[in-house]
Write a structure and sequence with these properties.
The strands form two sheets. Strands 1, 2, 3, 4, 5, 8, 9, 10, 11 and 12 form a ten-stranded mixed beta sheet that branches. Strands 6-7 form a two-stranded antiparallel sheet. The relative contact order is 0.20. The protein folds into two domains: 49 residues, FAH (SH3 type barrels, Roll), CATH 2.30.30; 114 residues, Fumarylacetoacetase-like, C-terminal domain (Fumarylacetoacetate hydrolase, domain 2). It is mostly beta strands and 174 residues long.
C-alpha cells in the first residue's frame, strides 16, 4: 500500500503531518514529508484528530479543457493551448470541511480528479539542478458550470470551485 501522508488538527489544537495507518491512527512526523519528516513516537488515535488539506500550498494551478470529452461537455472545441487557471489556497478544504457555495450558485457539479503536488527546492549555485519532490492527491472538485461562460476583463474564464482532498499518496524525488 502507498504511504498516505496527512495533515491533521489534533484535539489539543496542534497541527501535525503524519502517516495515516490502516487502523486510522496517525503516526506523527517531525516535519512535513517533503522536508524529509521522520516518524516520531507520537501516535494520534483514530477519532482524536480532524483531517485537514494535506498541504498548505502557496498557489494552486489548474489546467482546463485539456481533453476532448470535457470540452464537448461544455459545447466547445479543445483549445489549441491548455487553459491555465489559478485558485487561492483558501479554496482547499479537508475532510468534513464546510463547502460554502457562492450566493449566486444555482447548480454545482462535482468530479473526481488526481492532483499533482510539486515541492521545488530552489537551485543554489553551483548545485546542478533543483531538488523536486512530488506526490499525488485524490481530489474532489466542485464547480459552478453556469459561470464558465462569463469572462473576466482579461478574457480568462471565471471559475468557482472548491477542492476537497484527504491525503498525499507517496512522495518521490526526481
Amino acid at each position: 500500500m502507498a504511504q498516505r501522508y496527512v495533515r491533521v488538527h489534533s484535539q489539543d489544537g496542534k497541527i501535525y503531518y503524519g502517516l495515516l495507518q490502516l487502523s486510522q491512527n496517525v503516526e506523527v512526523l517531525d516535519a512535513p514529508p517533503w522536508l524529509d519528516g521522520q516518524p516520531t513516537d507520537l501516535i494520534l488515535p483514530a477519532n482524536s484528530y480532524r483531517i485537514l488539506a494535506p498541504c498548505a500550498p502557496s498557489k494552486i494551478v489548474g489546467v482546463g479543457k485539456n481533453y476532448v470529452d470535457h470540452a464537448a461537455e461544455m459545447g466547445t472545441p479543445v483549445p489549441a493551448e491548455p487553459l491555465i487557471f489559478f485558485k487561492p489556497p483558501t479554496s482547499l478544504i479537508g475532510s468534513e470541511g464546510e463547502i460554502k457555495y457562492p450566493p449566486q450558485s444555482q447548480k454545482v457539479d462535482y468530479e473526481g480528479e488526481l492532483a499533482l503536488v510539486l515541492v521545488i527546492t530552489p537551485v543554489i549555485v553551483p548545485q546542478p539542478k533543483p531538488k523536486v519532490k512530488f506526490g499525488v492527491i485524490p481530489l474532489l472538485m466542485i464547480s459552478q458550470p453556469g459561470i464558465y461562460k462569463k469572462k473576466t476583463p482579461n478574457g480568462l474564464e471565471l471559475r468557482v470551485l472548491i477542492l476537497f482532498v484527504l491525503w498525499v499518496l507517496g512522495l518521490s524525488e526526481n
